[in-house]
TrEMBL record, chain A:
Residues 1-10 have a biased composition (Polar residues). Residues 619-890 form the GCVT N-terminal domain. Keywords: Oxidoreductase. GO terms for biological process: tetrahydrofolate metabolic process. This is Sarcosine oxidase subunit alpha family protein. InterPro entries: 2Fe-2S-bd_N, BFD-like_2Fe2S-bd_dom_sf, FAD/NAD-bd_sf, FAD/NAD-binding_dom, GcvT/YgfZ/DmdA, GcvT/YgfZ_C, GcvT_C, GCVT_N. Residues 177-443 form the FAD/NAD(P)-binding domain. The keyword Oxidoreductase applies. The lineage of its organism: Bacteria, Pseudomonadati, Pseudomonadota, Alphaproteobacteria, Hyphomicrobiales. GO terms for molecular function: sarcosine oxidase activity.
TrEMBL record, chain B:
The keyword Cytoplasm applies. This is Sarcosine oxidase subunit beta. The lineage of its organism: Bacteria, Pseudomonadati, Pseudomonadota, Alphaproteobacteria, Hyphomicrobiales. Residues 35-79 form the Rhodanese domain. It comes from Oceaniradius stylonematis. SUPFAM superfamilies: FAD-linked reductases, C-terminal domain, FAD/NAD(P)-binding domain. It catalyses: sarcosine + (6S)-5,6,7,8-tetrahydrofolate + O2 = (6R)-5,10-methylene-5,6,7,8-tetrahydrofolate + glycine + H2O2; sarcosine + O2 + H2O = formaldehyde + glycine + H2O2. GO terms for cellular component: cytoplasm. It is an enzyme of class 1 (oxidoreductase). It holds the Pfam family DAO.
Length: 1003, 417
């Protein structure tokens, strides 16, 4: 099949640059069309004489293609590549076509030409800006049951994907001397100058091909050749240089602190069949020594009645479609302008065979050279005339032209209208960099003023008057940036001659002259959000005088194009209505991103397993092999319990609990935080960090320590061993490891900087096996070298260094279960071998491995707290029954003052007690609330809550711990736990449920 | 005040809406007022409104440095809920929810309160313990909050990934059905209009530069960029900048200010029916009536007054969103922004008298003040009018940081507000 002008009625033979003309088949709303390789969806649709592409947000007005670039507010479509690759709100002016591209119009039902939502347009006199704040209030319940669902269904544009995204997204970090944002004349000049000076350069441009406005400015000549060819060759030359990276289809979307700029690169959406290995988009996070902003300018539309009819577009866009894509947007074209550049567009269209029905120029005087050329081409120019309305609905069919100050109307038939109200410099990135804008009175535009970061603006975004100035500014900015980034390099000054016949003079801000004012007409300021001139005036009338209020009340500039076309018009209309100068009214803040960025691009690899690192202990595979069920604890995967055939969780935990107390059990405690605290002041430092005394802890001894913050509440706990005079082995809770190290560093650096102490995290250096139960010493003994395990030589709460199966070991004699027990620390790499070897012996002795659940039950049987479960940041050591751990003789530690505050030291505090369900069988809900009087109505007076609760086979029933108001004085009292299905009676008791009579020497 | 109604809108539609007047007056400041409120955000404007409505004090000015509603009121993710743990908090936020339920009618301004349900996810045993503790406490306090299984959570919010294979699978959820969202700008504008109608002066572009006191320490007024304005009672409601203002009266505040970011996606047809929050995976999300996904991020790690933040924070947030809702990776971020939140040591607000006679303060809302707006204004107005707190805000004193009588929702809940 061949593509010919016959199947693409608006394709002009010999025009444009899409050579060779390779046909591409695509579909729109189910119909198949042909375009050419290199087309955007917009240019391909226009080639097929399709202007109607979508429906607007609020009024469901028929909308066409307004622009030829990323600023497009109207031509948004859904693109699908199979069911899972659906993308709503794609700008047809950006999307390149490829074979099989499947595009669908949005926000219409049942079809684009016959949309029921159009009723909103007929109702539009009611639907003025902010009308919804004034109504839908009756009846009261109707908002969220009736009105809101209807409004929600009507709003929104495209349809969100509903299947997991099969694509992946890539990420790169980059450093460079000079980042150039924009690959038009200014950006390429800057990149060239910087690169020739030896700087490392990244230059990005949002389009597929470099050149910016050179794509349509056919009269531009740079360095003696056609402007666009110069751009293409310059980009190729840059790409070939070792010190330059050229990134097409890459948008600089966010400018953050310290010259950190984020770029989004689109890699596959333009390809017929991307290789499965390819990422769809890539996020570049660039830290640049210098940034050159060369983002150009965006043409504005004219604001007049029905200016949104399909077939009406920006003059530069029409020129772009013709000169780059070879597409003539209409046969009888009207022109409405306040700017010289629309003339060049009109002349180009005329020469390509279009009939230019009229050029209506609101200006009194126009450059005679332009009038002369118009005359030569036989184009009628009406100066001081305005287009006051457009006719037609699904496509513009006529325009109404009148002298600006009133007079007779002429209705002129057209099938397209091109317009220009002048150019708005793209200062988005500059503004995001926190630079301050200044208002240029002559040009009625905002330009970069005071810079906040190491960057420079060049070209149209900096207000450059013409192509020569643009190239000159670009070269100067590139050279200066290279010199600043590499002061020692020798700059190579470049001089490139550039000229263009085109002038961009002349402008219009706000609504065009409209002698027909007062009629019920819509002159759109913001196309997508359907904000009209009248809406802006209404906002001002209602007292919304800040431009931010105007924006929020009317939603002007809040659509997916973020006001690239509408903001200046809206501002000018508001300023006029307020009778204040534009700079006094001010601009709304420019917010990142410049154009919408895919979530996936920002997320990159951070999905699924890579969302957060998964931490596994060295023994993990052994646990897996043993059939452990794992529990997420922070980033860790911890064995929760080890079910055997036929066992559910309760059965497994009961068996593990009983086994430990009867014989022996082993537990992977490697996730505990470990910090090596070393230095001459190590003891003094820990003495301040913990509530316990540490100065006199003997070498080789362990101590259970509690740590508070300044507020006096428990922050973390753990066992600390003194390995040498100046060396401690500190353990923390699993979750507390990083924050405890931070906490210690914070104090060391800010409060106790004079102390000679070094902190090193050793959490991952030690693998830890807790071996607990009456047979622990017997099982361990055969492995140990260099140590006597007798209680005389290695008493409870002591530490010694020796070997385990020949591997260096720190052995703690301690227990978190109230048994004789050890915590065996071996270097991480030996963890698994040690575990496996020990496991064989444990099994032989009738023991087993146990998981976190059993660990929790065993410690609760002894009343030991878990920080974060039995404490919640409001519990002091005294509340937890741990007054013994607060050094009474100490005159200072972190939290000592907090603990003295009246509310912490006074009565009525919630204290940790044990609870026994009186029925002897109910396991209380953790988190359940406790009351003294179960018969009160809500709000009930809650005096405490259940923090830990388990079934304990060892204790023959349920056990629970709770924080209860004045709990220590309530021993024996009956309290109540009201549940949805009845009240549970409980008796208050102490927390030591296991072996409460014989005081264990292991407690 | 011209009453808003469907009828009035239809009437105005016939004459091109020429008949609407200003929603609030913009008067020149008087030389003195009975009460000055510093800060025209939602809380400040609500305070002024309830001073006029409930206490008959109409000689009130609300002074605003910039444009009203331009601080955190206009920057937050509009989540409303009251399923807090402690009695004090549950009392305060539920008071607010009850006011939200009738606020559009009370103000004659559609604030679009939409009780579509707030679901908080659990991803591990600890999350479950915390959320269930809330549910139990809420039940006994008469606040609705219920436990959902992962399957029930998936039914309530279809885009939610409840697969067991997720990095942090959903293990359950707590749902408050009365929770939801409201239209933040409308809240500020509605209060401004209703307060103005009762005679309150809302004065924008008027920055307070000093707080003047008499010899005995009593407040006598404020210095502003538009001159001195007298008042025997001054209420400071200035969110992130409260510390700076209170310094002017030599009151040192236990506040830290952090940038907090949020973002919205492009608008799409309804695809997300409720509000979902997750503390472990850390993000929160809802869909606005306009169709944008509204997504809240975390605070920066460092204190700052800059209303911006780093890309890495947004990255973390979007990772969390895409982890919980993998169908959203192809959605696009349309706009991101930051605000400054003021955080107290116990993450609960201060609504109280101060050691300076005549000076009152309402601050410390951290990342969750929007939901309290009506309740906060209501009890703060009571506090100012009576020089004594309302029973609901009795516990939210400034002294609690000295006495230790904290209301530590963050520590207790470990849940993002």
């Amino acid at each position: 099949m061949t593509a010919s002008t016959a199947t693409q009625p608006n394709r002009v033979d010999g025009a444009g640059r899409l050579t060779p003309a390779n046909p591409v088949r695509f579909s729109f709303d189910g119909d198949t069309y042909h375009g050419l390789a290199g087309d955007t969806l917009a240019s391909a649709l226009l080639a097929n004489d399709i202007h109607l592409v979508g429906r607007s947000f609020k009024y469901h007005r028929p909308r066409g293609i307004l622009t030829a670039g990323p600023e497009e507010p109207n031509a948004l479509v859904g693109i699908a590549r199979g069911a899972a690759r659906r993308q709503p709100n794609v700008r047809a002016t950006v999307q390149e076509i490829h074979d099989g591209l499947d595009a669908t119009s949005q926000n219409r039902w049942p079809s684009l030409t016959a949309d029921v939502g159009e009723v909103n347009d007929w109702m539009s006199p009611v639907f003025a800006a902010g009308f919804y704040y004034k109504t839908f209030m009756w009846p009261k319940k109707a908002w969220d049951t009736v009105y809101e669902p209807i409004i929600r269904r009507a709003a929104g544009l495209g349809v969100a994907p509903d299947q997991p995204d099969p694509d992946r997204y890539a990420a790169r970090y980059a450093h460079c001397d000079v980042l150039v944002c924009g690959g038009g004349a200014a950006g390429l000049s800057a990149a060239l100058a910087a690169a020739e000076s030896g700087a490392s350069v990244i230059v990005c441009d949002e389009r597929a091909a470099p050149g910016g406005a050179l794509a349509f400015e056919t009269d531009a000549r740079i360095d003696g050749q056609d402007g666009h060819r110069w751009a293409t060759e310059t980009a190729a030359k840059l790409a070939a240089m070792d010190n330059v990276r050229v990134l097409p289809r890459t948008t600089a979307f966010g400018y953050y602190a310290q010259n950190f700029v984020a770029l989004a690169e689109r890699l596959t959406d333009h390809l017929d069949e991307p290789a499965p290995s390819m990422a769809r988009e890539r996020l570049w996070q660039v830290r640049a020594k210098r940034v050159v902003i060369a983002t150009g300018a965006i043409e504005r539309h004219m604001v007049f009645a029905n200016n949104d009819r399909p077939g009406i577009m920006l003059a530069s866009a029409a020129r772009h479609y013709l000169n780059h894509y070879g597409v003539l947007i209409g046969r009888t074209v009207g022109v409405y302008t306040a700017n010289d550049s629309a003339y060049a567009a009109a002349f180009d269209l005329k020469r390509a065979g279009a009939d230019i029905a009229v050029i209506a120029d609101i200006r009194d005087t126009v450059d005679p050279a332009l009038l002369e050329e118009a005359g030569r081409l036989g184009i009628r120019v009406l100066t001081h005339h305005a287009v006051v309305a457009a006719g037609g609905k699904l496509r513009v069919s006529s325009i109404v032209v009148r002298p600006c100050r009133g007079g007779s109307r002429q209705v002129i038939p057209v099938d397209a209208l091109i317009m220009s109200a002048g150019w708005t410099p793209s200062v988005h990135l500059f503004s995001q960099s926190r630079g301050k804008l200044r208002f240029d009175e002559d040009g009625r535009r905002f330009l970069p003023g005071e810079y906040a970061q190491d960057c420079a603006s060049a070209g149209a975004c900096n207000g450059a008057a013409n192509l020569a100035a643009t190239v000159e500014e670009g070269l100067a900015a590139g050279e200066a940036a290279a010199k600043a980034a590499r002061p020692k390099a020798t700059a190579k000054p470049l001089s490139i001659k550039a000229e263009s016949g085109g002038s961009w003079d002349g402008l219009m801000l706000g609504a065009g002259p409209n002698p027909e004012a007062g009629k019920v007409v819509k002159a759109f300021v913001d196309f997508q959000n359907d904000v009209t001139e009248k809406d802006i005036r209404l906002a001002v009338r209602e007292g919304f005088h800040s431009i931010e209020h105007v924006k929020r009340f009317t939603t002007n500039g809040m659509a997916t194009d973020q006001g690239k076309l509408s903001n200046m018009h809206g501002l000018a209309i508001a300023a006029e209505a307020l009778d204040r100068p534009i700079p006094e009214v001010g601009l709304t803040t420019f917010r990142a991103p410049y154009t919408p960025v895919t979530f996936g691009t920002i997320v990159g690899h951070g999905r699924g397993a890579l969302f957060d690192p998964t931490r596994r202990t060295p023994m993990h595979e052994s646990h897996e092999r043993a059939g452990a069920v794992f529990e997420d604890v922070g980033q860790w995967k911890r064995p929760w319990y080890y079910p055997r055939a036929g066992e559910d969780m309760a059965a497994a935990v009961n068996r593990e609990c009983v086994t430990v107390r009867k014989s022996v059990g082993m537990f992977d405690a490697s996730t505990l935080g470990k910090i090596e605290v070393v230095g001459p002041d190590a003891a003094a430092f820990l003495h301040l960090i913990y509530t316990n005394p540490f100065m006199k802890l003997g070498v080789g001894r362990l101590r259970y320590g509690i740590m508070c913050r300044e507020d006096g509440f428990i922050y973390d706990d753990g066992v600390v061993g003194r390995i040498a005079e100046d060396r401690f082995h500190v353990t923390t809770t699993t979750g507390g490891a990083p924050r405890v190290l931070n906490h210690m560093e914070d104090y060391l650096q800010t409060e106790f900087p004079e102390m000679k102490v070094w902190l090193t995290s050793t959490s991952e250096q030690w693998a830890v096996i807790a071996l607990q139960g009456p047979k622990a010493a017997e099982v361990l003994a055969p492995f140990v070298g260099g140590l006597d395990l007798s209680k005389e030589a290695l008493p409870f709460m002591s530490v010694a260094e020796g070997t385990f199966a020949g591997v260096p070991m720190r052995l703690f004699r301690m227990s978190f279960a109230g048994e004789d027990g050890f915590e065996i620390n071996v270097p991480g790499d030996y963890g698994r071998a040690a575990w496996d070897a020990l496991h064989d012996k444990v099994a032989e002795a009738g023991g087993c491995a146990y998981g976190t659940e059993t660990m929790h039950v065993l410690r609760a049987e002894k009343g030991y707290i878990i920080v974060g479960q039995d404490t919640d940041g409001t519990v002091t050591p005294h509340d937890a029954g741990l007054s013994w751990a607060v050094g009474k003789a100490k005159d200072d530690f972190v939290g000592i003052r907090g603990l003295k505050r009246p509310d912490l030291a006074g009565g009525g505090r919630r204290q940790l007690v044990g609870l026994r369900s009186k029925d002897g069988s109910t396991v209380l809900d953790e988190g359940a609330q406790i009351v003294a009087d179960p018969n009160q109505p809500p709000p009930m007076d809650m005096i405490g809550w259940v923090s830990s609760s388990y079934w304990s086979d060892n204790c023959g029933g349920p056990i629970a711990m709770a924080l209860v108001e004045g709990g220590f004085d309530r021993m024996g009292e009956t309290l109540y736990v009201p549940m949805p299905d009845g009240v549970v009676e409980v008796e208050v008791r102490d927390t030591n449920f296991w072996n409460p009579d014989a005081e264990s020497d292991n407690g | 005040m011209r009453r808003f109604s469907g009828f009035a809108v239809a009437r105005e539609a016939m004459r091109a809406h020429k008949g609407w007047g200003r929603q609030w007056d913009s008067p020149e400041p008087r030389s003195s007022y009975d009460v000055i409120i510093v800060g025209a955000g939602g809380h400040g404007l609500a305070t002024a409104y309830y001073l006029a409505k409930e206490h008959g004090i109409t000689n009130v000015a609300v002074l605003e440095k910039g444009w009203l509603g331009g601080g955190n009121t206009g920057r937050n993710t509009t989540i409303i809920r009251s399923n807090y743990l402690y009695d004090e908090s549950a009392g305060l936020y539920d008071h607010a929810v009850k006011l939200w339920e009738g606020l559009s009618q009370d103000l004659n301004y559609n604030v679009m309160y939409s009780p579509r349900g707030v679901m908080m996810l659990a991803h591990n045993v600890h999350d479950e313990q915390v959320l269930k503790r809330h549910i139990h406490a809420n039940r006994l306090n008469g606040v609705d909050n219920e436990w959902l299984t992962p399957e029930q959570a998936g039914e309530y919010c279809p885009p939610l990934n409840i697969s067991k294979g997720a990095r942090y699978p959903v293990t359950g959820a707590a749902l408050q059905r009365r929770g939801g969202t409201a239209r933040h700008d409308a809240v500020a504008w509605g209060y401004a209009r209703a307060a103005s109608a009762r005679g309150v002066h809302v004065i924008e572009n008027c920055a307070v530069t000093g707080i003047r006191r008499s010899g005995n320490g009593q407040v006598t007024g404020v210095e502003t960029t538009r001159g001195f304005i007298g008042a025997k009672k001054v209420g400071v409601v200035a969110a992130g900048h409260t510390s700076v203002l209170m310094e002017m009266a030599d009151v040192r505040m236990p506040l830290e200010s952090f940038p907090l970011q949020a973002l919205v996606s492009e608008p799409v047809k309804p695809c997300f029916p409720c509000v979902v929050m997750s503390n472990s995976v850390h993000a929160y999300i809802s869909q606005s009536d306009k169709g944008e996904l509204v997504i809240g991020a975390g605070t920066d790690q460092y204190t700052s007054y800059s209303q911006t933040g780093g890309l890495h924070i947004l990255k973390d947030t979007l990772e969390a969103i895409c982890e919980m809702f993998p169908v959203f990776t192809r959605m696009k971020m349309l706009r991101s922004w930051g605000g400054i939140v003021d955080v107290t040591p116990d993450r609960s607000p201060i609504i109280a008298r101060t050691p300076v006679p005549g000076l009152y303060v309402n601050c410390g809302w951290g990342t969750g003040g929007f939901k309290a707006t009506p309740g906060s204004g209501h009890v703060f107005a009571h506090t100012i009018a009576n020089d004594n707190p309302h029973p609901i805000n009795e516990g939210f004193t400034l002294e609690r940081f000295t006495t230790g009588r904290l209301i530590d929702e963050a520590a207790a809940a470990a849940v993002a507000h």
